[in-house]
Write a structure and sequence with these properties.
Blueprint lengths: L3 H15 L6 E4 L14 E7 L2 E6 L3 E6 L5 E5 L13 E6 L4 E5 L3 E6 L4 H4 L13 H8 L7 H6 L9 H10 L16 H13 L35 E4 L8 E4 L15
Antiparallel strand pairs: 1-6, 2-3, 3-4, 4-8, 5-7, 6-7, 9-10
Keywords: DNA damage, DNA repair, DNA-binding, Endonuclease, Glycosidase, Hydrolase, Lyase, Metal-binding, Multifunctional enzyme, Nuclease, Zinc, Zinc-finger
EC number: 4.2.99.18
Protein name: DNA-(apurinic or apyrimidinic site) lyase
Protein backbone atom coordinates (compact mmCIF):
# COMPACT_ATOMS: atom_id res chain seq x y z
CA UNK A 1 0.00 0.00 0.00
CA UNK A 2 1.45 3.43 -0.91
CA UNK A 3 2.45 5.52 2.08
CA UNK A 4 1.98 9.20 2.74
CA UNK A 5 5.07 10.37 0.87
CA UNK A 6 4.11 8.39 -2.25
CA UNK A 7 0.54 9.71 -2.19
CA UNK A 8 1.87 13.26 -1.70
CA UNK A 9 4.01 12.95 -4.84
CA UNK A 10 1.13 11.46 -6.81
CA UNK A 11 -1.15 14.31 -5.76
CA UNK A 12 1.41 16.83 -6.98
CA UNK A 13 1.66 15.08 -10.36
CA UNK A 14 -2.11 14.88 -10.77
CA UNK A 15 -2.47 18.51 -9.71
CA UNK A 16 0.09 19.66 -12.27
CA UNK A 17 -1.48 17.55 -15.03
CA UNK A 18 -5.16 18.37 -14.51
CA UNK A 19 -5.43 21.93 -13.22
CA UNK A 20 -5.49 24.95 -15.51
CA UNK A 21 -8.10 23.87 -18.02
CA UNK A 22 -11.55 22.25 -18.26
CA UNK A 23 -12.00 18.51 -18.49
CA UNK A 24 -12.43 17.32 -22.05
CA UNK A 25 -13.14 13.75 -20.98
CA UNK A 26 -14.66 12.13 -17.92
CA UNK A 27 -15.44 8.45 -17.56
CA UNK A 28 -16.09 7.00 -14.09
CA UNK A 29 -16.42 3.24 -14.42
CA UNK A 30 -18.09 2.23 -11.19
CA UNK A 31 -21.83 1.50 -11.18
CA UNK A 32 -22.94 4.29 -8.87
CA UNK A 33 -21.02 6.91 -10.87
CA UNK A 34 -21.61 5.55 -14.37
CA UNK A 35 -23.91 8.43 -15.38
CA UNK A 36 -21.72 11.19 -13.92
CA UNK A 37 -20.15 13.54 -16.45
CA UNK A 38 -17.77 16.23 -15.23
CA UNK A 39 -16.73 17.31 -18.73
CA UNK A 40 -16.33 21.07 -18.94
CA UNK A 41 -15.55 21.54 -15.27
CA UNK A 42 -12.16 22.79 -14.23
CA UNK A 43 -10.04 20.92 -11.69
CA UNK A 44 -9.31 23.27 -8.81
CA UNK A 45 -6.69 21.05 -7.20
CA UNK A 46 -5.68 17.58 -6.12
CA UNK A 47 -4.99 17.29 -2.41
CA UNK A 48 -3.46 14.40 -0.46
CA UNK A 49 -4.93 13.60 2.94
CA UNK A 50 -2.88 10.87 4.54
CA UNK A 51 -3.26 8.03 2.02
CA UNK A 52 -6.39 9.54 0.43
CA UNK A 53 -6.63 11.68 -2.72
CA UNK A 54 -9.17 14.48 -3.07
CA UNK A 55 -9.65 15.89 -6.58
CA UNK A 56 -11.70 19.09 -6.34
CA UNK A 57 -13.76 20.41 -9.24
CA UNK A 58 -15.56 23.63 -10.01
CA UNK A 59 -19.08 23.57 -8.70
CA UNK A 60 -18.16 22.27 -5.27
CA UNK A 61 -17.56 18.60 -6.12
CA UNK A 62 -14.75 16.29 -5.00
CA UNK A 63 -13.69 12.93 -6.39
CA UNK A 64 -12.32 10.86 -3.50
CA UNK A 65 -10.00 7.94 -4.26
CA UNK A 66 -7.82 5.59 -2.25
CA UNK A 67 -5.24 3.22 -3.74
CA UNK A 68 -5.04 0.61 -0.95
CA UNK A 69 -2.89 -2.32 -2.10
CA UNK A 70 -3.29 -2.41 -5.90
CA UNK A 71 -4.74 0.88 -7.09
CA UNK A 72 -2.83 3.36 -9.25
CA UNK A 73 -3.26 6.63 -11.09
CA UNK A 74 -1.25 6.98 -14.30
CA UNK A 75 -0.81 10.18 -16.33
CA UNK A 76 -0.43 10.13 -20.10
CA UNK A 77 0.24 12.62 -22.88
CA UNK A 78 -2.40 12.80 -25.67
CA UNK A 79 -0.73 10.33 -28.04
CA UNK A 80 0.90 8.15 -25.38
CA UNK A 81 -0.02 4.48 -25.06
CA UNK A 82 -1.75 3.58 -21.80
CA UNK A 83 0.26 0.98 -19.92
CA UNK A 84 -1.29 0.74 -16.46
CA UNK A 85 -3.19 -2.49 -17.05
CA UNK A 86 -5.97 -4.01 -19.16
CA UNK A 87 -9.01 -1.87 -19.99
CA UNK A 88 -11.30 -3.80 -17.65
CA UNK A 89 -9.20 -2.60 -14.69
CA UNK A 90 -9.79 1.09 -15.46
CA UNK A 91 -12.07 2.77 -12.94
CA UNK A 92 -11.65 6.46 -13.85
CA UNK A 93 -10.54 8.60 -16.76
CA UNK A 94 -10.05 12.36 -16.37
CA UNK A 95 -8.73 14.13 -19.43
CA UNK A 96 -7.75 17.66 -20.41
CA UNK A 97 -6.33 18.98 -23.68
CA UNK A 98 -2.80 18.21 -22.45
CA UNK A 99 -3.00 15.15 -20.20
CA UNK A 100 -5.15 12.17 -19.31
CA UNK A 101 -5.20 10.69 -15.80
CA UNK A 102 -6.29 7.05 -15.68
CA UNK A 103 -7.19 5.32 -12.44
CA UNK A 104 -6.56 1.57 -12.41
CA UNK A 105 -7.97 -0.95 -9.89
CA UNK A 106 -9.19 1.81 -7.57
CA UNK A 107 -10.96 0.09 -4.67
CA UNK A 108 -12.39 3.41 -3.43
CA UNK A 109 -13.94 5.97 -5.77
CA UNK A 110 -16.61 8.36 -4.53
CA UNK A 111 -18.05 11.65 -5.73
CA UNK A 112 -19.24 13.99 -3.01
CA UNK A 113 -19.71 17.65 -2.28
CA UNK A 114 -16.45 19.34 -1.35
CA UNK A 115 -18.16 20.58 1.82
CA UNK A 116 -18.71 16.93 2.77
CA UNK A 117 -15.05 15.85 2.56
CA UNK A 118 -14.89 15.37 6.36
CA UNK A 119 -17.29 12.47 5.86
CA UNK A 120 -14.50 10.44 4.20
CA UNK A 121 -11.34 11.86 5.78
CA UNK A 122 -12.56 13.48 8.99
CA UNK A 123 -11.63 10.42 11.04
CA UNK A 124 -7.94 10.78 10.20
CA UNK A 125 -5.39 12.06 12.66
CA UNK A 126 -3.02 14.94 11.89
CA UNK A 127 -1.52 14.57 8.41
CA UNK A 128 2.27 14.21 8.54
CA UNK A 129 2.60 16.07 5.22
CA UNK A 130 -0.45 18.30 5.50
CA UNK A 131 -1.15 21.84 6.65
CA UNK A 132 -3.00 20.47 9.68
CA UNK A 133 0.09 18.74 11.12
CA UNK A 134 -0.01 18.97 14.90
CA UNK A 135 2.61 16.86 16.73
CA UNK A 136 1.03 17.47 20.13
CA UNK A 137 -2.34 16.18 18.93
CA UNK A 138 -0.69 13.19 17.23
CA UNK A 139 1.10 12.32 20.48
CA UNK A 140 -2.12 12.68 22.46
CA UNK A 141 -3.87 10.24 20.16
CA UNK A 142 -1.00 7.76 20.21
CA UNK A 143 -0.94 7.73 24.01
CA UNK A 144 -4.72 7.51 24.40
CA UNK A 145 -4.29 3.71 24.47
CA UNK A 146 -0.89 3.26 26.17
CA UNK A 147 -1.18 -0.53 26.20
CA UNK A 148 -1.34 -0.73 22.41
CA UNK A 149 1.75 -2.14 20.62
CA UNK A 150 3.85 0.59 19.05
CA UNK A 151 3.64 -0.89 15.54
CA UNK A 152 -0.15 -1.09 15.61
CA UNK A 153 -0.46 2.44 16.96
CA UNK A 154 1.71 3.79 14.14
CA UNK A 155 -0.39 2.11 11.46
CA UNK A 156 -3.66 3.47 12.83
CA UNK A 157 -4.47 6.42 10.58
CA UNK A 158 -6.72 7.85 13.29
CA UNK A 159 -3.59 8.64 15.30
CA UNK A 160 -1.48 10.24 12.58
CA UNK A 161 -2.07 9.97 8.86
CA UNK A 162 0.50 8.80 6.34
CA UNK A 163 2.44 5.94 7.94
CA UNK A 164 2.38 2.55 6.27
CA UNK A 165 4.22 -0.67 6.91
CA UNK A 166 7.61 0.52 5.63
CA UNK A 167 7.72 3.57 7.88
CA UNK A 168 6.29 1.59 10.78
CA UNK A 169 9.22 -0.81 10.65
CA UNK A 170 11.82 1.90 10.07
CA UNK A 171 10.48 4.15 12.84
CA UNK A 172 10.48 1.33 15.37
CA UNK A 173 14.09 0.58 14.48
CA UNK A 174 15.17 4.22 14.76
CA UNK A 175 13.38 4.45 18.11
CA UNK A 176 15.33 1.36 19.33
CA UNK A 177 11.98 -0.18 20.24
CA UNK A 178 10.27 -3.48 19.53
CA UNK A 179 7.13 -3.06 17.39
CA UNK A 180 5.32 -5.05 20.10
CA UNK A 181 6.34 -2.77 22.95
CA UNK A 182 3.30 -0.99 24.44
CA UNK A 183 3.59 2.58 23.29
CA UNK A 184 3.06 3.80 26.84
CA UNK A 185 6.29 2.01 27.83
CA UNK A 186 8.35 3.91 25.28
CA UNK A 187 10.92 6.04 27.18
CA UNK A 188 10.49 9.18 25.02
CA UNK A 189 7.17 8.88 23.16
CA UNK A 190 7.32 12.53 22.11
CA UNK A 191 10.04 11.52 19.65
CA UNK A 192 7.57 9.42 17.65
CA UNK A 193 5.65 12.16 15.79
CA UNK A 194 8.78 14.29 15.40
CA UNK A 195 10.77 11.47 13.81
CA UNK A 196 7.85 10.36 11.64
CA UNK A 197 7.47 13.87 10.28
CA UNK A 198 11.21 14.12 9.60
CA UNK A 199 11.28 10.86 7.63
CA UNK A 200 8.28 11.59 5.43
CA UNK A 201 9.39 15.16 4.74
CA UNK A 202 12.84 13.93 3.72
CA UNK A 203 11.36 11.41 1.29
CA UNK A 204 8.34 13.14 -0.19
CA UNK A 205 10.29 14.33 -3.25
CA UNK A 206 12.48 11.24 -3.64
CA UNK A 207 11.62 8.49 -6.13
CA UNK A 208 13.57 6.02 -3.96
CA UNK A 209 12.80 6.04 -0.23
CA UNK A 210 15.85 6.35 2.07
CA UNK A 211 15.89 6.12 5.85
CA UNK A 212 19.61 5.42 6.25
CA UNK A 213 22.45 7.65 5.12
CA UNK A 214 23.20 5.41 2.13
CA UNK A 215 21.96 5.70 -1.44
CA UNK A 216 22.99 2.11 -2.24
CA UNK A 217 19.85 0.18 -3.25
CA UNK A 218 20.61 -2.62 -0.78
CA UNK A 219 21.23 -0.24 2.14
CA UNK A 220 18.55 2.43 1.78
CA UNK A 221 16.36 1.00 4.54
CA UNK A 222 17.40 -0.21 7.99
CA UNK A 223 15.18 -3.28 8.33
CA UNK A 224 12.23 -3.31 5.91
CA UNK A 225 12.63 -5.96 3.21
CA UNK A 226 15.87 -7.28 4.77
CA UNK A 227 14.63 -10.56 6.25
CA UNK A 228 17.54 -12.81 7.22
CA UNK A 229 20.15 -10.26 6.20
CA UNK A 230 22.51 -8.70 8.75
CA UNK A 231 21.39 -5.62 10.58
CA UNK A 232 23.18 -2.57 9.19
CA UNK A 233 23.94 -1.45 12.74
CA UNK A 234 24.88 -4.59 14.68
CA UNK A 235 25.01 -7.49 12.21
CA UNK A 236 22.22 -9.56 13.79
CA UNK A 237 19.91 -11.26 11.30
CA UNK A 238 16.75 -9.25 10.63
CA UNK A 239 13.63 -11.13 11.64
CA UNK A 240 10.01 -11.04 10.45
CA UNK A 241 6.63 -11.73 11.98
CA UNK A 242 3.03 -10.63 11.61
CA UNK A 243 2.31 -7.46 13.56
CA UNK A 244 -1.38 -8.30 13.62
CA UNK A 245 -2.79 -11.63 12.36
CA UNK A 246 -5.76 -9.75 10.82
CA UNK A 247 -3.57 -7.34 8.83
CA UNK A 248 -2.99 -8.33 5.21
CA UNK A 249 0.52 -8.09 3.74
CA UNK A 250 1.90 -6.24 6.74
CA UNK A 251 4.90 -8.30 7.71
CA UNK A 252 6.98 -6.64 10.41
CA UNK A 253 10.76 -6.49 10.08
CA UNK A 254 12.93 -5.86 13.13
CA UNK A 255 16.33 -6.45 14.68
CA UNK A 256 16.03 -8.41 17.95
CA UNK A 257 19.31 -6.92 19.22
CA UNK A 258 18.79 -3.25 18.40
CA UNK A 259 15.11 -3.31 19.31
CA UNK A 260 14.84 -5.05 22.67
CA UNK A 261 11.50 -5.40 24.41
CA UNK A 262 12.00 -5.40 28.19
CA UNK A 263 8.57 -7.01 28.59
CA UNK A 264 9.53 -9.90 26.35
CA UNK A 265 6.40 -9.52 24.25
CA UNK A 266 8.02 -9.88 20.83
CA UNK A 267 7.56 -13.19 18.95
CA UNK A 268 10.05 -15.89 19.87
CA UNK A 269 9.49 -18.25 16.96
Amino acid sequence: MPEGDTVWRLAQRLHDALTGGPLTRCDLRVPRLATVDLTGRGVLGVLPRGKHLLTRFEGGLTLHSHLRMDGAWQIYAPAERWRGGPAHQIRAILGTADHTAVGYRLPVLDLLRTADEPRVVGHLGPDLLGPDWDPAEALRRLLATPERPLGEALLDQRNLAGIGNVYKCELCFLLHASPWLPIGALPRPEHVPTLAKKLLEANKRRPARITTASARPDRRLWVYGRAGRPCLRCGTGIRTADQDPTAEERVTYWCPTCQPDPRGSRPTG
